[in-house]
Amino acid sequence: AQTVTQSQPEMSVQEAETVTLSCTYDTSESDYYLFWYKQPPSRQMILVIRQEAYKQQNATENRFSVNFQKAAKSFSLKISDSQLGDAAMYFCAYRSARGSGGSNYKLTFGKGTLLTVNP
Amino acid sequence: DAGVIQSPRHEVTEMGQEVTLRCKPISGHNSLFWYRQTMMRGLELLIYFNNNVPIDDSGMPEDRFSAKMPNASFSTLKIQPSEPRDSAVYFCASTPASYNEQFFGPGTRLTVL
Questions:
Q1: Distance of residue A18 Cα from the nearest chain B Cα, in angstroms
Q2: What residues of chain B lie within 8 A of the CB of A111, using their CB?
Q3: In the list A111, A113, B30, B97, which could disulfide-bond B42, CB 3.0-4.6 Å?
């Protein structure tokens, strides 16, 4: 079974600074997807960024980027120019690419990292 | 476009009562997921459906929990009888077959006294 580990229960960053959230995972599969979800106090789960394991290029979405190290099974999230609205719980998630027709679409989540942004 | 709709948003009930949580997935999405979020265990997958058929219910904690998807636009998660340890936020999510990401509803906060 796949597992996802987020070793930082809490992180803090000053507004406008950069912060990196860590995520490692364990899998025997070679093809899979990785995600970072954000959960603000409203508790809505919002997709931040996704990465396909077969792609060597790291995904980027505006101020959010990842450092995907497949051999090390590491998938960290970097938030640049942090804003107050970035304060939230961040979850790393794994999804297998095997199966078809929805047979293996479930997500496995890490325990989350609570990010505080200080003004 | 409407997102995933869940009702109720909050539910407070007493131990032993039956609780029914409802979910309407995004139109056209053929996979539906129920998750439970607690401080102790984080986000756990309870069950998921593909084309209204349960694919994996290994995360359902015990026989007190049951889920149905009678049609493509509606699913229920029922707890009978409810216990205080069932208190959690329950999320429903859906996805179309061609997508990698899941779209989450706002969640139902369940409190069992």
A1: 26
A2: 42
A3: A111
Rg of chain A over all Cα atoms, to the nearest angstrom: 14
Q: Any idea how long chain A is? A: 119
| Residue of B102, B103, B108, B109 to mutate, testing the A interface (most A Cβ within 10 Å of its Cβ) | B102
How far the first Cα of chain B sits from its last, in Å, is: 36
Q: What is the pLDDT of residues A71-110, one digit of tens each?
A: 999 999 999 999 999 999 999 999 988 765 555 678 899 9
- Structure token digits, residue B82: 């409810």
User: How far is Cα B109 from Cα A114, in angstroms, rounded to an integer?
Assistant: 20
Pairing mode, if any, of strands A74-79 and A64-69? antiparallel
**Residue of chain A with shortest Cα separation from B106:** A44
pLDDT tens-digit series, residues B44-72:
999 999 999 998 888 898 899 999 999 99
Q: Does A105 touch chain B (CB under 8 A)?
A: yes
Kindly list the distances between the CA atom of residue A84 and the CA atoms of A21, A79, A117, A118, B53, in Å, as whole numbers in the listed order.
Answer: 16, 12, 6, 7, 42
DSSP structure class, residue A31: S
